[in-house]
Amino acid sequence: MPEHARTLRAVSGPAFDARAVWLDGRTLRWPGRDRSGRFRLHHARDATLVRGNDALTGADRVLDLDIAQGTMPGLPWIADGVELHVRESDLAALPDLHRGQLVITHEDAGGTILDITTLQHARALDDLYAAAADAPALGLHPDGAHTRAALWAPTARSVALCTYADASGAATGLHPVQRDAATGIWRGTVDAGPAHRYATWLVDVFVPNVGLVRNRVTDPYSLGLSADSRRSYIADLGAPSLQPAGWTDAPRPPLPAAATDLVLYELHVRDFSIGDASVPSAHRGKYLAFTDTASDGMRHLRALAQAGITDIHLLPVFDIATIPERGCLTPDVGGTPDSERQQAIVAAHAARDCFNWGYDPFHYTAPEGSYASDADDGAARILEFRRMVMALHAAGLRVGMDVVYNHTSAAGQDARSVLDRIVPGYYQRLLPDGTVATSTCCPNTATEHAMMERLMIDSAVTWARDYRIDSFRFDLMGHQPRAAMERLQRAVDAAAGRHVHLLGEGWNFGEIADGARFVQASQLSLGGSGIATFSDRARDAARGGSAGDNGIDQVRNTGWLNGGADARRADLLRVGLAGSLRSYAFETASGSTLPASAIDYAGQPAGYTSQPGEVVNYVENHDNQTLFDLNAFKLPRDTPAAERARVQTLGAALVAFSQGIAYFHAGQDILRSKSMDRNSFDSGDWFNRLDWTYTDNGFGAGLPPAQDNAASWELMRPVLADTGIKPSADDIAWTRDAFRDLLRIRGSSGLFRLRSADEIRNRLRFLNTGPAQQSGVIVGRLDGRGHADAGFDAILYALNAETDARTLVLPTERGRAYVLHPVHAAEAAADRRAREARFDADTGTLRVPARTAVAFVLPRAP
After folding, report:
1. Options 3.40.190.10, 3.40.640.10, 3.30.930.10, 2.60.40.1180; CATH of 764-858
2. Residue 678 in contact with residue 708, Cβ under 8 Å?
3. Residue 32: pLDDT over 90
4. Among 179, 205, 359, 663, which is most buried by a count of CB atoms within 10 Å?
């Protein structure tokens, strides 16, 4: 592989920080309040600035700056300072100055430097090159006999396109491109044909504290790639050669009538089939496994679709930085249930194995190559991804996709940094001291900047239009502006010709928390947008503790499901069952009737949504321990395996009976365990396995990897070694079938999927509330009168987390002839204990068996 970068001229002297910030194309803020002396902007085209003891030499041009009289609003994240203007006579020179080295000094009257820094230039570039946001398509696009090439690189000194005939051979051409001064976009055309199938860009650009550099970089809009992302594959996604047979007219599941009809199943591509012996060996762990319709895994997915799952949500399938696409390893692992051996083997091979969750984006708009049959064939991953989508659609399942636009896997001059090596300092979000923010885990992107927003939107449009992705889950969506997400929603809907559902993690933390830089796409800021966020309120109440708890905390912090069924947690679960609506009111444990927005959750309002389609309900997903593993920590050790299965199913019932979008983790329905691993993102196939034969749930695979779990090993050892905890095949099969019954109950009535806050306020009422409640039993009543899709005049549901049967008297329901829901009453029903539930119409007495979720219905009046 040719070198990814070559320094043409290195900077001299110590590094400069970047504390000064351009506020627009003319104005900047100096980080300090001292207005004395003078402020000057120094430019060196060839990176020749050198700081001496009290002076700066090597400048080609020096601009005196004027102190502004007013202040610009709206930048609370930037420290108070002096605002400075470039003089009118110097404005025309600014675009060229941004293409070299720029340093700002504060000097005393005699010219001695008091302070010095470089500048954060993103806002200036957005102002100077605003037309780029609406310019024609960027990237590499075949067009008849030519390929149109376009790269936004406004600060580059020169740009050229290097082409190749294949994934590994020598270059076949070096093609000049021309810079458009209005947009900062470099454009050119290249002859199409076999000599020019792959490409890289050569970008000469000034890199702060490095110098003038020639970067060889792939295209940030790449639609395809060679193995390990070394070259961009030039692709026309509309070409017949990149469309599988039948693609044009392939059937597609209908659009759900409302977001609340969505029932999502989160699945990792490799997990799905790598251990499935019924899949041809060449397809295991690949896109093509979904095309093997007779496999155990596809039989499982079809059964879920028939029961009520609407969408398969795939963990990241864009180009991933940390999975080797050639020569990755699958280590042999084995050992006793409480051994350190397994995790040691996994850790030793983690950098070269074939597994990673994939939350480390390399190229946002190209399919991941390790899931393709041939990663070096740029066409293979495109064709096979589309075949996967076709297969899932044919099974009656829409396809969702986990996207990670909030960070990159690398920044700066790292070989895996794409964006920052094209426009240094623009695409990443910088802190006040000029360093890259990493609150997401990795170098954060700045989607508040126009061209990072455009890249995100253009990428999502491609997935929705050209791959028929039906819904998106946005990783750490709260790190993005609400306005950008709303523009993305409009764009993907227009491109797809139908509504594309958006949901994401609306967590509020980091350098953008509480609206520090913009109105976020976060839980408390998205009301009215129709974009959904995951709710941690009911999740934490059900599971106990919080997502970040270690083993000791997990043991201490029981949840409603596993021994901590107190009234406070019960109230949070009622908030979740009511769609986390801020306006929904009920009698709380204190005896007061309060809206959910007035109920506290860790200092935030428990109810925060304006409509039920804006919440995603879940008790388990890929992050943190599985529900089975948490319950292994929390339930009494002597809890029988069959009872553990009931607790697991009760957790699924909380989601199935909740208003809003239902979300389930793959394997939650078959007691999935990751051997108590709290963060299995790089734990290999061994700790992430799925068994579609329903024989083994993965518990007791050994002590999980030390990186995130070693502090809890001594707590885990006796639990993992306890053979009484591990479920039998019968326990797994029972959970599978009981889960599907819950899906059928949810699907049987629109009352579980109400579409508006008004409907929920008018139709849902909680019983057994207030200070005298039995907090281990939650009872809800849904009024179906006048509702076209209710199916029943009313539904009465109850969830009992206690270890014994409970009896409640519901005076308001006396005289109502409730009967067991038809799914419970069917001969094939999995949960026989639910049949022991009783409702006495004469007395209004409800009896709910231990650890049981049950629904009664009031049939339609004739």
Report:
1. 2.60.40.1180
2. yes
3. no
4. 663
Q: Residues 672, 697: contact at Cβ < 8 Å? A: yes
Q: Residue 829 in 3-state DSSP?
A: coil
As beta bridge partners, residue 314 has 267, 401
pLDDT per residue as tens digits for the range 591-640: 999 999 999 999 999 999 999 999 999 999 999 999 999 999 999 999 99
| Domain positions in the chain | 7-128, 134-242, 262-736, 764-858
**pLDDT tens per residue across span 680-722:** 999 999 999 999 999 999 999 999 999 999 999 999 999 999 9
The tokens 């990176």 sit on which residue? 47
Q: Tell me which H or E stretch contains 362.
A: strand 361-367
As a CATH number, domain 134-242 is 2.60.40.10
Token readout for 824 is 């419970």
Residues forming beta bridges with residue 67, ordered by sequence position: 84
The reply to whether 262-736 and 764-858 are identical in fold is: no
- Rounded to a whole number, what is the distance in angstroms from the first to the last CA of the chain? 76
pLDDT at 40 over 50: yes
Distance CA 266, CA 621 (A): 7
Q: How far apart are CA 669 and CA 667, in angstroms?
A: 5
The Cα-based distances of 484 to 440, 490, 542 in angstroms read 18, 10, 33
Handedness of CA 460, 463, 465, 466 (dihedral sign): positive
Segments in 40-107 forming alpha helices (H):
94-97
Q: Which of 473, 416, 419 is nearest to 447 (CA)?
A: 419
Q: State the catalytic residues.
A: 475, 505
Q: Which pTM was predicted?
A: 0.97
Inter-residue long-range contacts of 712-720, CB under 8 Å, 24+ positions, other chains counted: 712/550, 712/551, 712/552, 712/554, 712/676, 712/678, 713/340, 715/551, 715/552, 715/555, 715/633, 716/338, 716/551, 716/676, 717/338, 718/338, 719/632, 719/633, 719/637, 719/676, 720/337, 720/338, 720/675, 720/676
Whole-angstrom distance, CA of residue 518 vs CA of residue 726: 48
C-alpha of 763 from chain center: 33
pLDDT digits (tens, 9 = 90+) for 365-393: 999 999 999 999 999 999 999 999 999 99
Mean pLDDT calculated for residue range 436-461: 98
751 burial level (CB within 10 Å; 0-12, 13-18, 19+): buried
- pLDDT reported for residue 861: 84
pLDDT band of 1, cuts 50, 70, 90 = very low
Sign of the four-CA dihedral 792, 798, 799, 804: negative
Place of tokens 């095949």: 729
Residue 95: both structure tokens together: 């675009």
DSSP state letter for 32:
S
* Ramachandran class of 220: left when φ > 0, alpha when ψ lies in -120 to 50, beta otherwise: alpha
pLDDT value at residue 71: 61
Of 3.40.50.1820, 1.10.540.10, 3.20.20.70, 3.20.20.80, which CATH number belongs to 262-736?
3.20.20.80
Q: What is the rounded (10 degree) CA torsion for 357, 359, 362, 367?
A: 50
Mean pLDDT, the chain, whole residue set: 96
- Helices 729-747 and 296-307 pack at an angle, to 10 degrees, of 30
